[in-house]
Specification:
single chain, 286 residues, alpha+beta, Rossmann fold, 2 domains, 6-stranded mixed beta sheet, globular
Length: 286
């Protein structure tokens, strides 16, 4: 299991070489930069933390001077670990997941696309919460037909203040409205504690739809969209990138994938949940 060694906070001095890759927010701002170092790779989350990843996979974290110290732990769990897992042959995607009697449903999307809020709403509607922010899949080995198992994570939600108030009734008056905070699930929400087979994947749109829209995607279109929700450490490592692409292509062929968009209005969530469950039940088994 990958562990992190925490160093003292430090000023993020300018790097001597340009980033070979960057993560951008939906608003077009640089969230993180990836840099070559003499001993491996440095992933810099601007204003938050530096993660030095050695060639042997060891991770050292230096929080940015003045940054909230809890941010580094969240970045390690929700970005660095899935990147390293994918680098070493795993299958992790940026998304949340829930389960019912028919199997697991994954919601993939960009930051602030509503995937965690939707998963929390499903949990309040009688489905079981599986994971949020990182969807880890493990594939059956030795099976004639590939199956993918959702791996459960810690039973908590990381939400913005308005979503926490709506879903959990959390007292969030003093929360920073521009940042996510961790909140425990309500006691009446079911939690999935064991792996569950993945039934369908829903790729979230930008919220511009005027009504709930669900469209079954071809495997090619599904793959194109899933690539946007991968965790890739080194875009210049062609061999590993090709292997990761192949794993995603298999997933897109093996599991029904849907484009999902809906108005980002809390009152629409019951209709969204009903439509999602109906689509998953009616989808072709591939």
């Amino acid at each position: 299991m990958t562990a992190m060694r925490r160093e003292k906070p430090r000023l993020q001095e300018p790097m001597g070489t340009p980033a070979y890759d960057q993560w951008m927010t939906p608003d077009g701002e640089a969230k993180a930069g990836f840099y070559r170092t003499s001993g491996g790779i440095l992933v810099r989350f601007y204003g938050e933390a530096d993660f030095e990843i050695s060639d042997n996979g060891a991770v050292r974290c230096s929080p940015a001077l003045g940054a909230d110290q809890s941010i580094a732990e969240n970045l390690f769990a929700n970005a660095i670990k899935p990147m390293l897992a994918n680098y070493n042959g795993g299958l992790n995607l940026h998304g949340s997941a829930v389960a019912d009697a028919q199997g697991g449903l994954a919601f993939l999307g960009q930051s602030r696309s509503g995937k965690t809020t939707l998963a929390g709403a499903c949990g309040g509607a009688g489905m079981a919460f599986v994971t949020e922010d990182v969807t880890e899949l493990k594939q059956d080995s030795g099976q004639s037909q590939r199956r993918y198992w959702l791996q459960p994570k810690a039973p908590e939600l990381r939400l913005f203040a308005d979503s926490a108030q709506h879903l959990l009734g959390a007292a969030a008056d003093d929360w920073d409205e521009g940042a996510k905070h961790s909140a425990s699930l309500n006691p009446d929400m079911a939690v999935q504690n064991t792996p569950v087979p993945l039934r369908a994947i829903f790729l979230l749109g930008d919220g511009s739809a005027q009504a709930v829209q669900i469209t079954l995607l071809t495997s090619q279109n599904a793959l194109s969209q899933m690539l946007q929700h991968s965790f890739v450490l080194d875009v210049e490592d062609k061999a590993r990138l090709k292997a990761h692409f192949a794993r995603l292509a298999d997933l897109a062929m093996d599991v029904p994938c849907f484009a999902l968009d809906y108005p980002r209005d809390y009152s629409a969530l019951p209709q969204v949940i009903a439509a999602v469950r109906a689509a998953a039940l009616e989808s072709p088994v591939q």
